[in-house]
Amino acid sequence: MKPRIHYRELEGGVGFWALLAAFGVLIALGLAAAHYMETNGHWVTGMTNQVVWGMPHVFAVFLIVAASGVLNTASVASVFARAPYKPLAPLSGLLAITLLIGGLAVLVLDLGHPDRLIVAITHFNFRSIFAWNIFLYTGFLAIVAVYLWLNMERRMNRYSRPVGFLAFIWRITLTTGTGSIFGFLIARDSYDSALMGPMFVIMSFSFGLAIYLLVLMASYAGSGRPLGDATVRRLKNLLGVFVASVLYFLAVFHLTNIYWAAHIDFEKFILFGGNVYTWLFWGGQVVLGGLIPLALLYWPRTGGSRFWISVACALVILGGLALMYVIIIGGQVWPLDLFPGKAVSSTFYDGVINTYTPSLPEILLGVGGVALSLAATMVAIKFLPFLPASLEDAIVEPAPAPASASAGAQHA
Amino acid sequence: MLGALVGALLLAWSPVRAAAPGGGPAGVPLPALPKATGKHCVMPTEWMRKNHMKLLFHERWVTVHDGIFIKGRSMEDCLSCHVHRLADGQWPKPTSTKFFCQACHAYAAVKIDCFECHASHPVKAPPGVGPDGGNPLESEARVAGPDAGLTAQALTPMPIAQDTGGGAK
Amino acid sequence: MSEAHEDDSLSAPERARRRFLTQIAAVTGAALAPGMVLFQVAQARALDQPVSSKTRWGMLVDTTKCARGCDICVKACDIENGIHSLGRPETDAQWIRKVTLRDLHTGYVQSLPMMCQHCEYPPCEDVCPTGASFRRADGIVLVDRHICIGCRYCMMACPYKARSFVAEPLHDQVPWSPRGIGTVGGCTFCVHRVDRGHKPACVEACAADGPGALVFGDLMDPESGISKMLASQQTSEVRADLRLNTGVRYHGI
């Protein structure tokens, strides 16, 4: 007989409250930064008429993308009916909600008029992918909330699978929509690509799972609850697949661009320009956020160590932020090609590779969004039973086979 | 943002307060409105007091989107009756309670952002500038003298980009 | 036109509604009336009637006349619309700018003004989440700053870099061209002038003080000066590959 999984509120010690307080300070700093930007105007930031989206968007898009990806674990349980993932689903849904809220908060607070949020939800232009996203985001929050309820209310469990399926389809759509914000920019060599949608989906898988695994290991280590090796191994192997897939998509994206003569100057600039974007792409995303985590996750000496798995997750997250910076900022500093075949110059930075220097308020706002996501997650797992009291292998996977220690090849 | 939310909440019950006989709650003086010039407002005062925003909201839409200008009812027309120079000859700042709109809006704690974009006092267009057309440089030229037009000396060659299409500065 | 106290027996909203219906009736009447009336609508619109798609405002830039180093159109635009440099070139607004072109292979140098091209299919309108970025029926692309939330997606989408974000509080706007913090702005074709039957500031200034390289008029009226010029000489759109059918066309590029 399968042992029952018991979900319990987190036991919070001094460490818990100290961490929560630290996040509180970061949130306050983020709000102060937003207020400073709003009252003075955006000239106090690094953003200009050339680079109109800056550091807040790097953080916001990263969080929004990760929010949909973090739902992975729940989807594997509900859509693909993998029993060992079932106890992991509530935290997965919770993080999906908190990360999305954190990302949206950053996005909204960076608007020229955050006070007109009411306008954004009462006036819609249905041709705008941005407007669709407003529905995709709010719908996502609602669907995941319902999914969580069905999942956590034992009497409703049997309905959770169809809603989980809907959440899965919804979040694929959502991330495609987020990628298409960039993909639909016809006039810019740096974006205009249908690959943006699917590439964002696979990025979400990778960033989301890295965050999930890190939060899971931290909560269980911090509270002294048992977390079985089989669960960790399963998730880290899955993460490896996603990290590799991101590299694959990046390769295809840049190769197709190189093949197109009109885009080749941009590719030369990003890939071989020797500038900050080149370094962030190769050093940040490919090496630190891709190859090293892959090695750490799959090399037997480090792949079995919680410490090195945590390092790998952290690197995937940092690499993801670097990639976002390259896509969002690097794409904008490249000038528009107004007159193909001509060199242009003007007083308005035509034909010039633009510069962007992130300012402190922008970074504080972005970090504040991350802190908001994590603080909300902490509060939720403290006061609601999101986490199983134990994720020991024997409880998660009471397999007829002997204990899981030897089941190394167990992929999802 | 929070301010706007609080403002919206206050808006819901502020008219009741303002209409209370003998003034607002103890200690809060009723707003002192600068006196308007002109014969009469576009609508009766009582109606305007409660509904001016409906007029503004509707007519700003038809003006911006359909290009309809209703004579005597533009923002400039409002300002020409309701905004006057202060005793020191300065125009009141739109954030000051000496400004017609702000006098009430501060009392009702409703934030308005009209004057972040709109000019907050009447402006007389210089010759050649503004809705009545003409050459905006006309008045400039007169100030600067006859050489202000296009002459070879006045032309500063603009920089020409170097060889690469998107070359760095 | 609409007198406020025309009929005190009606409630205010009722009066407003009646006035609105009257206007609609007037417009419909104009649309159904014979050619003579149509011609009048296209030429001089009464200000209490909505703009119609029977007019499309456009501009022709003759780059063979446009002088390198001359920025009279820019100066005129700045004075007309109350645009000042705040000493921060990267965030300063520029609604019209002079662009110098140099052919990469032949070295031929040209100069031309670049501003909002007033596309028939504006990418800024497509991406704007609230509908603040819109194309008026007569072809002028505008920003409704009342509902602009300052997301700057239009600036990402515009192929012409025609929009500027207001990145600081402003205090000295002119009444006929409102613009302010946290919203985007760009060339309006001097809509406040056009609505009253006048030409944009840059066109007037270029004609009076400059080389007269700018022609403005109604593209839908085959008898207008601009239509005749467009029909008789080579002109092209900037980024014609995007098929946006711009309202601004250039001769000589």
Describe this structure in words.
The complex is a heterotrimer of chains A (412), B (169) and C (253). Chain A has helices at residues 14-40, 55-69, 72-78, 89-109, 117-120, 129-152, 160-183, 196-223, 229-259, 264-272, 276-298, 300-303, 306-333, 360-383, 393-396; strands at residues 7-8, 342-346, 387-388. Chain A is an all-alpha fold. Chain A has a single domain (7-383), classed as Formate dehydrogenase/DMSO reductase fold, CATH 1.20.1630.10. In chain A, helix 2 (55-69) crosses helix 13 (306-333), helix 3 (72-78) crosses helix 7 and helix 7 crosses helix 8 (196-223). Mean pLDDT of chain B is 76; it is low at 9-22, 142-155 and 163-169. Chain B has a domain at 2-19 and 28-117. Chain C has a single domain (57-251), classed as Alpha-Beta Plaits. Chain C has helices spanning 12-32, 35-43, 72-81, 123-127, 153-157, 191-194, 201-209, 225-232, and strands spanning 57-62, 96-103, 109-115, 133-135, 141-143, 163-165, 184-186, 214-218, 248-251. In chain C, strand 4 (133-135) and strand 5 (141-143) form a beta hairpin.
Q: Could you write a compact summary of the structure shown?
A:
By secondary structure, chain A is mainly α.
Q: What is the strand and helix layout of this fold?
A:
The complex is a heterotrimer of chains A (412), B (169) and C (253).
Chain A: E1 7-8, H1 14-40, H2 55-69, H3 72-78, H4 89-109, H5 117-120, H6 129-152, H7 160-183, H8 196-223, H9 229-259, H10 264-272, H11 276-298, H12 300-303, H13 306-333, E2 342-346, H14 360-383, E3 387-388, H15 393-396
Antiparallel strand pairs in A: 1-3
Helix pairs in contact in A: 1-14, 2-4, 2-7, 2-8, 2-13, 2-14, 3-4, 3-7, 4-6, 4-14, 6-7, 7-8, 8-9, 8-13, 9-10, 9-11, 9-13, 10-11, 11-13
Chain B: H1 2-19, H2 45-66, H3 75-82, H4 100-108, H5 114-117, H6 137-144
Chain C: H1 12-32, H2 35-43, E1 57-62, H3 72-81, E2 96-103, E3 109-115, H4 123-127, E4 133-135, E5 141-143, H5 153-157, E6 163-165, E7 184-186, H6 191-194, H7 201-209, E8 214-218, H8 225-232, E9 248-251
Parallel strand pairs in C: 1-9
Antiparallel strand pairs in C: 1-8, 2-3, 4-5, 6-7
